[in-house]
Each structure stands twice: as structure tokens, then as C-alpha cells.
Amino acid sequence: MSKKQFKSKILHGFLHDPSALLGSMILVVFILAAIFAPWITPQDPYDLTKVSLEHFLTPPIWMDGGVSPYLLGTDDQGRCILSTIIYGCRTSLIVATGVVLIAGSFGILIGLLSGYYGGLLDAVSMRVADTFYSFSTTLWAILFLGIFQGGSIIVVIIAICIAGWVKYGRTMRGSVLEIKDSAYIMAAKATGASDFRLLFKHLLPNAMPPIFVIIAVDLAVVIMLEATLSFLGVGVPLTEPSLGMMVAIGKNYVYAGMWWMIIFPGTALVLLVVGINLFSDWLREELNPKIER
Amino acid sequence: MGTYIVKRFIQGVVVLLAASMICFGIFQYSGDPALNMVGQYATFQEINEVRESLGLDKPVYIQYGKWLVNALQGNFGVSYRSRVPALGLILERFPATFELVSIAVFMAFCIGVSLGVVVALKPNALVNRIIMAGSLGGISIPTFLIGTVLIMIFAAYLEVLPAFGRGDTIQIGFWRTGLLTVSGWKHLILPATTLVMYQLAVLLRLTRAGMREVLTEDYIKTAWSKGLAPKTVIFKHALRNVLIPVVTITGLQFGELIAFSLITETIFQWPGMGNLLLTSIYETDQSVIVTYIMIAAVIIISANIIVDILYAVINPKVRYE
Q1: Which residue in A156, B74, B275, B291 has its CB near the most CB atoms, within 10 A?
Q2: What are the pLDDT digits (tens) for B59-88?
């Protein structure tokens, strides 16, 4: 099968898989909303001149006591819930992209080098990876942020990367080990290609497919983790919008029957994650030659 | 096997040392516990006295050395906040966490694996498609949201289940159990359900994926064509091989499980170790944090070793040299 045929087969499979299509549509809507947030939201919830305490804890607009333009109601600070959700998704997507970029590049590099060179480098880096992985990304992030007492979105990204690179490193290493003895790599070696050329021109692109699945899965995992950290109060600072923090605020009013403060941000979070998971499920099956379709 | 376990044990000790060193390293950059203890209106002299009494005026390597020598004798220091030994404080809360986690894991494993097998056998049946959609929900709804929504529905609206604490407990020796009272079980339902969801969905999906791969293998086709009973083919030939990665991943996710139980305990004010850790983090209670990390590491490392042994039991091909 040529490269072109392979590409068109993947595209065909994608267009004929309703759940993959649905997933990517959800994702596109969220990304567009996040990018154009300042233009589509009724209110900038973190601009203090726009928020008035006059309308706080109002219910959605279709219920008794609902106030225009607060479509989904307001929270205890008078912030529009719909606007905060859209800005919160922006935070989620920024953190997820940041983690995938930083943890991904670091992990891929480590995996590539230790898979190719083996020996001491491989032994040491994989033991370190085991240590980080066995404590779990979530636990590392909670400990790191808790002890450092938060700070900013960047600190949250770094906290998630501490153990987040391991998945990429291990997958890349396995992938490199599988292909490094294949004929075309031998041939490249025989032509006298430098190590650098071998690593980045021949091994890296061919070892990437499993990494794509990891990236897709990781986006969803990181979005949930950021929300969890913010829910626990160790994530993004109070001055930044976050879906997790919205649920935490809503939980304070859970016995007051103000369900909209929990359900709306919660639904947005789950929709975003489901969208990514639908897409990554499809990708995983598509790239796994062992499953008959 | 024996040498292998010894090797893993030594590795575990190295991990413990590394983790404790990292902790002390990070503490240098975190808030000052002495400042936290005396409050913001204390004079410099008062702060320095507290610092001296905790040994915080010494350089970090001396602090670490002192801690290590004491820890080797089973003395993990005193909680800055409540002035009782940190180890005792945490171990006292161990039963609560253990009961919650073990019940959740047991349920997740039984339900997850059996549903996974059922779904893999007839992937296109309507019921199974619904189960798969549900499992997608299970991995897409974060633990904190499940817990909050459960509280909203069952505690705030329906008012049928308690949302906070552990209920009535009974003390048996050093173990305080909530499993012997009706109120204890009632209090367990919501947190255990919260903790089960994610694990269940992951196990279900792993089992299903594994079964789908294994069922296409030649040896399964041979087993069918030999005319073996479906029960034998599915459970003895297929599932046994599928369980190998499932058990490994369960073991590897033990750290994740501890993290999720921490979140669950916080939401439901469950008086366990995780809840204590988060409170200690807010209060910069360093000796409790370090002790917790040491205990968590011991649990995770032993879980990994146990999984390796189970691995050899399930898969006779595995030999540890």
C-alpha cells in the first residue's frame, strides 16, 4: 500500500465513523469557542469593571429570577456562568496543549535516545521513569503544587509534566526498539548516515504512530487533571477561570439547590473530554493492525 | 524468584531514599512551617524559638540526616500542627482508606472484567453498545465531578444517603472498622461508588480490547474447532491470557488509585490518609507530608511486587531470574 493510498484509507475510515466525526466536531466547536472567547461571551468574568455584585447567584435565564444577559445564571461573585465556562475551556485547552508539547517532546527525546543507544542511559532513564510513573501523575502534581502553593498556569503545566513525560518516553522507546533492526535502518546506516540523521530523519518519523494515540488520550487526561487540581484548590490561581474551580464553588451551594453552578461547568468538561476520547478511540483502532474491522 | 524479589526490594529502598530526598529539597522552597505555627502577629524572637525547637534553623542536609536516622528507628517526627507523632496520626487513618479502596477495587475488578468479556463476545448487540457508551462516560467524567453530582442527587435532593464522614465505627484492637454497622455501610456507598467508576471503566475497556484481540488468534480457533465448551474456551483459554495485561496495568495504576482515593476522601470528608494529606499540605505540616509519601511509596512498591508474583502465577511462561 502506498503512502497516498494509506492516507486515503484513513480519511475514508474517518468519514464513515460517526463517533469519530462527532468527537472531532465537538472538539472543533470547543477550540473555536476558546479562541474567540472575548468576542462571543456576554461578559468578561475576570474583568472586575464588568462584573457587578448586584446580580450574584442568579439562576438560568428561563427560571424565576433569571436576569438577562446571564443565559446560564451567575456565581457567587456575579460572574456570568456561560462566559466563565468558555474562558475555563480556554484554560483547559492551554494547559493540555502545554503539557503535550513539553512532556511530549521531553519524553519522545528520552525514549528515542534510550531506545537507540540502550546500555546505561536506557537502564537509568527507565528506572527513573518507573519511579515517577508508580507514584502517578496525579499524585506528583498534587504534591508539587500543594507544597509550592500554586502560582500560575505555567506552574500547573510543569507540575503535570513531572511524571507526564513517562508515557511518551516508554512508548517511544518501545516503538524504536521494534524498528531499529529493520532493513531500511540498516541500509541508512550502511550509507554512512550520521547518528543525528538516523535518529531524527529515519527513526523518529517511523516510530511516531503509537505516539499519536498517546497524545490524543493524554489531552483528555490532562484536561481532567487540571480541573481536578483546581477543584482541590491547588491548581490555577483564583484569578484564572477554571471548570474545576467552578464546580468547587458550586459544591458550596449544593444544599441550596443551585444545581446550575455544578451541572453546567461539569457538562462542558465532560463534553470536551468525551469529544477527545471518541476521537482517540477511533485513532487507536485505526492504528492497531491486529484488530479485524 | 527469591533473588528477583530481593532485587526488587533493594530497588524499592532506593526509591524511598530518592523520594524522601526530593521532599526535603522541595521543602526548602515552600512556606515556612514555623511562620504558619506562630501566626502572623508573632515577634522575630518567637519565630526563631519555634524554628530552633523544630530543628529548622539547621542546614538542609543536617535536617535530612537527622530525619533519616530517626526514620530508620521508626520515628518519623512530630506533626507540627497537632504535636503528636506523624506516623501514628497517619496509621490511625489507614483503616478508613484501606476499607474504602479495597471494596472499590474488588467491585471494579469483578464487574469490570465480567462486563468486558460479555461486551467482547457480542460487540454489536444493543445492550453491549450501551455498556460501551457508559464506559466512555466512566473514563470521561473526573472523580471529583462524579462525587459532587452524587452528593447533589443522593444527599441534597433525595436526602437518602449521608455525604460526609464514615458513620458509626467499631474499634477492634488497633483497627477501627466501619463495616460492622449499618450507618458505616450507608456512609460507604457514595464514596465507594465514586471511586469505582473510573477503575471499572478502565478494566472493562482493557478486558474488551484484550478479548477482541485474543479471540482472533489461531489457538482460540483451534479450541473452538476441537468442540470445547464455550465456557472452557472463553475463561480457560482466552480470559487467562487477557488477564495478564489487565493485572499488570491494575498494579501499575496503584499510585493513581491512591491519588483518586485522596480526591474522593476530600469530597466526602472521609477520615482517611488522603484527607489528612491535603489538610497537611494546606497547613505546611512537613513531617506529616513526608511520612505520607513514605507510606504511599511502601504501598505502591509492595503492590508492584505482588503484581509481579501474580504475573508468574497467571502466566507460567514467566520466569524471574
Answers
A1: A156
A2: 778 888 888 888 888 777 778 777 788 888
For chain A, count helices (H), then strands (E): 13, 0
Residue range B232-249, pLDDT digits in tens: 888 888 888 888 878 877
d(CA A81, CA A229): 20
Quote the longest CA-to-CA distance of chain B: 86
In angstroms, what separates the C-alpha of A193 from chain B's closest C-alpha? 38
Query: How far away is chain B from the Cα of A82, in angstroms, using its nearest Cα?
Result: 18
Closest A-chain CA to B285: A147
pLDDT digits (tens, 9 = 90+) for A29-40: 999 999 998 888
Q: Which residue has the cell 511486587?
A: B305
- pTM comes to 0.87
- Which chain B residue's Cα is nearest to A254? B152
Q: Which string of b and e fits A171-198 if b means at least 16 CB within 10 Å? A: bbbebbbeebeeeebeeeeeeeeeeeeb
Q: Which tens digits make up the pLDDT trace of A109-162? A: 999 999 999 889 888 888 888 878 878 889 889 888 887 776 789 999 999 999
Cell numbers standing for residue B48: 526563631
Q: What is the mean pLDDT of chain B?
A: 84
Q: Is the peptide bond before A69 cis (omega within 30 degrees of 0)?
A: yes
A290–B216: do the CB atoms touch at under 8 Å? yes
The neighbouring-strand residues paired with B232 are none
Cα–Cα distance for residue pair A203/B92, rounded to 1 Å: 53
Contact A148 B30 (CB under 8 A): yes
Q: Which of A139, A259, A290 sits opposite B152 (nearest CB)?
A: A259
CA distance A274 to chain B (A): 6
Cell digits of residue A114: 534510550
- Chain A positions in Cβ-Cβ contact with residue B141 (cut-off 8 Å): 270, 273
Measured in angstroms, the CA of A144 and the nearest CA of chain B are apart by: 8
Interface contact B142-A127, CB threshold 8 A = no
Output b/e per residue, A127-151; b: 16+ Cβ within 10 A: eebbbbbbbbbbbbbbbbbbbbebe
Q: Do residue B145 and residue A270 have CB atoms under 8 angstroms apart?
A: yes
Q: Which positions in chain A touch B289 (Cβ < 8 Å)? A: 143, 146-147
Cα(A200)–Cα(A194) distance, integer angstroms = 10
Q: Which residues of chain B have pLDDT under 70?
A: 1, 28-32, 35-37, 39-40, 316-321
Please answer yes or no on whether B259 and A146 come within 8 Å at the CB atom: no
Amino acid at B252: L
Query: Which chain A residues are Cβ-neighbours of B139 within 8 angstroms?
Result: 220, 277
What digits encode the pLDDT tens for the residues A237-287?
888 889 999 999 999 888 888 888 899 999 999 999 999 999 988 888 787
SS3 content of chain A, % helix, strand, coil (to 5): 75, 0, 25
**Nearest of A263, A245, A247 to residue A63 by alpha carbon:** A263
DSSP state letters, B212-246: HHHTTSHHHHHHHHTT--HHIIIIIIIIHHHHHHH
For residue B43, give the H/E element and its range. none
ipTM of the prediction: 0.88
